[in-house]
Amino acid sequence: MPKLGVEPIRRQALVKATITEIGAAGSLDVTVSKIARRAGMSSALAHHYFGGKEQILLAAMRHILVLFADEVRSQIASARTPAERLDAILRASFASPNFTAEVIAAWLNFYVLAQANPEALRLLTVYRRRLQSNLTYALRPMVGAAAADKAEVIGALIDGVYIRQSLRAGAMGGDDALAMLRRTVDHMLPGADQRKTAEMVDGAMT
Amino acid sequence: MPKLGVEPIRRQALVKATITEIGAAGSLDVTVSKIARRAGMSSALAHHYFGGKEQILLAAMRHILVLFADEVRSQIASARTPAERLDAILRASFASPNFTAEVIAAWLNFYVLAQANPEALRLLTVYRRRLQSNLTYALRPMVGAAAADKAEVIGALIDGVYIRQSLRAGAMGGDDALAMLRRTVDHMLPGADQRKTAEMVDGAMT
DNA sequence: TGATTGATTGACTCGTCAATCAATAAAAAT
DNA sequence: ATTTTTATTGATTGACGAGTCAATCAATCA
Lengths: 206, 206
What we know:
- The structure is a homodimer of 206-residue chains.
- By secondary structure, chain A is an all-alpha fold.
- Chain A has a single domain (58-205), classed as Tetracycline Repressor, domain 2 (Orthogonal Bundle), CATH 1.10.357.
- Chain A contains ten helices and no strands.
- Chain A has helices at residues 7-25, 32-38, 43-50, 53-77, 82-94, 101-116, 118-143, 147-165, 174-188, 195-205.
- Chain A starts with 6 loop residues before the first helix and ends with a helix.
- Chains A, B: InterPro entries: BetI_C (IPR039538), Homeodomain-like_sf (IPR009057), HTH-type_TetR-like_transc_reg (IPR050109), HTH_TetR (IPR001647), Tet_transcr_reg_TetR-rel_C_sf (IPR036271), Tscrpt_rep_BetI (IPR017757).
């Protein structure tokens, strides 16, 4: 093989090109040829490495999910208190490179893909569970038994802001979205203004 | 056909068949032939009445938006207080015939369509604005200047619950969704400070 | 050096689908 | 009764796209 170890590079290039193409087209109606051309190779080679269009799409999806997971992990790493942990998740959700027109369009279309493709559904379910778990873990010390429920609400809210962002017209930027989320989440916590109340409840719970 | 005035019937049948097909396929990759067959006619006739696939899809979209608008209007009609008006909107959002797997799948795909189709984008924008307006109108007497902001949050939350519902696994029913929304909205209203804390502690104990 | 093997592609197949059209049937209008 | 209008479809066309394959090309290894 000429130039050994080209495979991972090609795969990476194809995955990135796929996300770009989906962003440009706004749908999954993206030809393998276009993806391959954007990645600088022939469509035959794309098939050679991935086996088929479906698997290219799934790889792109996994890539985005990993990207998001990494961002969450990185943001959470420096969080000390539950409140900081919660905010870290919000930051990860609305900071680049996640809250980009391209990536948001991809998310939206992955939801569509999950309608017909079991593996895509599985991936999204895993993402959803992990987000729920992270949120609940951060919320429990603050709101106790209500954590799961509130995590569900925040999760839905994040998804909602994402989908609305996909209609660029009248949508807000990542910073605005983050601010809105923070405000709303704040309202859901005990003693919205003073964090003291939160600590009280926290103490009572644990 | 002989039988004059068949056109509206055919159009209606095609629109309903389109929604069903989108629901079944989970995507917009729905052939005109399949739609037409389900509606009991040839694909050529579908083209004859609508001019093309795109316009069939847009007609289906308009149908769903009108359905939703009618439901909201109908629910709001009997509302006396702002709180009732607010609840009416929530009921309209999560009651059949709006909160159906079929219709939800259609919504999701219309968001995708809006990525590429200006008319679809326009329709969704109109829907969004109307929802925002209705929510704000109901909220203003309750929260004053914060109405617009809170309306935005509730709107996003509704969209988020919808999109999550589209992944049937682990999703909640319409009643649960409605209950969750009510609880959340309740927390966003004034007087929630006292009620909230009480509820919190109460919830922690039960 | 020469065999091996991965990398790479152009050309081709096969299927699908949107859109069109010519033809037919039948009610309505004249 | 004949013409017009509306309804309807089977057949066809033209385009496009996924996937395959046989054939190169070049680095590595024995």
